[in-house]
Each structure stands twice: as structure tokens, then as C-alpha cells.
Design a protein that fits this description.
There is one protein chain. The protein is α+β, with helices and mostly antiparallel strands. It has helices spanning about 1-40, 50-70, 85-95, 120-125, 140-160, 165-170, 185-195, 235-245, and strands at about 75, 120, 200, 220-225, 225-230, 250-255, 260-265, 280-290, 295-300, 315, 330-335. Strands 1, 2, 6, 7, 8, 9 and 10 form a seven-stranded mixed β-sheet that branches. A two-stranded antiparallel ribbon has the order 3-4. Strands 5-11 form a two-stranded antiparallel ribbon. The radius of gyration is 24 Å and the shape is globular. It contains eight helices and eleven strands. Helix 5 packs across helix 7 (about 185-195). Pfam families: Inhibitor_I29, Peptidase_C1.
Length: about 325
């Protein structure tokens, strides 16, 4: 009996080795094929050495995505333009690298009496939200959050939706504690626009995605700021009030590695921090909702192009200061 058991074990071992020897090359070829398809889709090219480095990162990211999607979560992940990058690389190129402490901004509470609408989406209320833009490899999300908000506020006030210049903010707003491609805050950018007497249109001061010399021409300014409203830190109800009755609002939050792969659903995290000293990405809340059997959420415009997330947008849990999103929200009062 012992000999039979040993014989069966030996057969199992040999079969396992045979399977691994013959299947492993097939798995590798399949991974390479998938990666090459992704490269073609995203117009990527590498030399031989980098190809295998990126293949390894891509394969690990795919495993993270598949493992997450096999679990019970409120959001799904998917491959996107960042899938050949480590999170460390991603942070370096796309998030705020200069520490930003939005608790330094002064708050002024926004409040309304009576109930708010169950859901709001400024994208469908009128021509109030510009298309999703792409910041590229520059930590300039703060400038896109700023322009997105002022574009909407200005359109609501004037009826004219004018794409505004992120590059002017990158090049010119350093005296207001902003740092170009190294980071900044929308509240500080609004202050710059207020005191510099305007922001030019995107077509007159186009985006280059790197720091450059300031070329602001006040005579060609297309939008102006009369004052800045900094919503009281951590007062998410005041954020809802503002978006429900007034306009979209900017907010900043702490992005962790799983957000890089976001595809659909309501994003939640147990890894991110919820204090103002951890914020590393600025975005624009254009609405909110709460569908049946789903977590209440914000509708958020990002600046990573339309290939990411829900055509460039994402939903994030509302009502719990998720990832610090309520620590430093703001919007401008237009001067028209």
C-alpha cells in the first residue's frame, strides 16, 4: 500500500512538472500578446530591455485588477493608459509632489435651509461643463480643477462656456503658493486670478504641460474672479448645498494605488488618509447622486483624459469625507 501511495505521488509530481513546463511558456506568450495589444492601443514603444520591464509591471497590475474584480467591492478596476507604470512612477508624474496643506485656507460656510434635490448633474442642466481634459505628465491637476470650476461658474453667470488656460496658472501663479507641475491648490489659484485681474482663454494661452515663463496678457483675459469661497473644512453637507443650488466645486483628496486602476462604480478606500496634509490630487465635483441599492456618491470630473475611468469621470463615496475630499473644497464668485 505504501509503495502504491509513493507511486501515485511520483506520478502526480511528474504530471505537475510536465504541466508547468508546457503551460508556463503558453501563459507567458498570452501575457506578451495581451501587453502588445495594450501597447498598440495606447501607442507605446520600448526597446527590448524596457519591454520586459514594462511587461512585468503590466502583468502585475493586471493581476491586481483581476483579484479586485473577483471580490465584493463597490467599484471595478480596469486596464488604462497607466497600466505599464508602478504607483511610485504614477505619483511622480501625475499627482502633487509638492506637499499641499489645504487647512491653511480660510473657510466660509455655505448652507441652505430645506431639503436638497436627491441628485444633481451640472452636465445635463445646461451647457455648463467643458469636456474632460488631459494634464499629461505634469502634476497640474490643481490648475485643471481651477479652470473647470471657473469655466462652469462663468457659464452659469453669463451663458457662455469658455475653456480657460491651465498653462497661465502653471506659469504665473507661483506667488500664491502654487508650484506649476509640482502642485498647487485651486483656492490659491482663484486668489491669483482675483488679484492678477483675470484668466485667459485656453486658445489664447494653450497648454504645454511643463513649466514656462509667464505670458499673461491682462487685455486678453476671458474670465475674472470677484471673491473666493472656501467651504468650511470637512463640512461635506456644505459641499452638497453648493453643488445643489449654485455650481460645481473643486476638491482635493488622497489618491492611493487602487484609484489608478479605477474603471466604474462608487470608489471607496480603507487605505487613503482623510486629513488635509495628505491631499495629492485636485478634481471637480459636477454633481452627486444616490441610486437604488448603491452608496451615495459624488460625480467627479478628472483630468486624465477620457480613456480613464467613466469616460474621464469617476464616482466617489459621499457623506464620509472619503479620502479627505471635504477637507479643502472651494469655488470662485465670478466678476462679470
Amino acid at each position: 500500500m505504501q509503495r502504491e501511495s509513493m507511486a501515485l505521488t511520483s506520478v502526480w509530481f511528474l504530471c505537475t512538472i510536465f504541466t508547468l513546463v508546457h503551460l508556463t511558456p503558453l501563459i507567458v506568450l498570452e501575457e506578451e500578446h495581451r501587453f502588445k495589444q495594450w501597447m498598440f492601443q495606447h501607442s507605446r514603444g520600448y526597446d527590448t530591455e524596457e519591454f520586459y520591464q514594462r511587461l512585468q509591471i503590466f502583468t502585475e497590475n493586471k493581476r491586481i485588477i483581476d483579484r479586485h474584480n473577483a471580490g465584493n467591492h463597490s467599484f471595478t478596476m480596469g486596464l488604462n493608459q497607466f497600466s505599464d507604470m508602478t504607483f511610485e512612477e504614477f505619483k511622480k508624474f501625475f499627482l502633487l509632489t509638492q506637499p499641499q496643506n489645504c487647512s491653511a485656507t480660510k473657510g466660509s460656510r455655505v448652507s441652505r435651509t430645506g431639503p436638497n434635490p436627491e441628485s444633481v448633474d451640472w452636465r445635463v442642466k445646461g451647457n455648463y461643463v467643458t469636456p474632460v481634459k488631459n494634464q499629461g505628465q505634469c502634476g497640474s491637476c490643481w490648475s485643471f480643477s481651477t479652470t473647470g470650476c471657473l469655466e462652469s461658474v462663468n457659464a452659469i453667470a453669463t451663458g457662455k462656456l469658455i475653456p480657460l488656460s491651465e498653462q497661465q496658472l502653471i506659469d504665473c501663479a507661483q506667488d500664491f503658493n502654487n508650484h506649476g507641475c509640482m502642485g498647487g491648490l485651486p483656492s490659491q489659484a482663484f486668489e491669483y486670478i482675483r488679484y492678477s485681474k483675470g484668466l485667459m482663454a485656453e486658445e489664447d494661452y494653450p497648454y504645454t504641460g511643463h513649466d514656462d515663463i509667464c505670458q499673461f496678457d491682462p487685455a486678453r483675459a476671458a474670465a475674472f474672479v470677484q471673491d473666493v469661497v472656501n467651504i468650511t473644512s470637512c463640512d461635506e453637507k456644505a459641499m452638497v448645498d453648493a453643488v445643489a443650488w449654485l455650481n460645481p466645486v473643486t476638491f482635493s483628496f488622497d489618491v492611493t494605488s487602487d484609484f489608478m486602476h479605477y474603471k466604474d462604480g462608487v470608489y471607496t478606500s480603507t487605505q487613503c488618509k482623510d486629513t488635509p496634509d495628505w491631499v495629492n490630487h485636485a478634481v471637480l465635483a459636477v454633481g452627486y447622486g444616490s441610486e437604488e441599492n448603491t452608496t451615495p456618491y459624488w460625480i467627479v470630473k478628472n483630468s486624465w483624459g477620457t480613456d480613464w475611468g467613466k469616460d474621464g469621470y469617476f464616482w466617489i463615496e459621499r457623506g464620509r469625507n472619503m479620502c479627505g475630499l471635504a477637507t479643502c473644497s472651494s469655488y470662485p464668485l465670478p466678476s462679470v
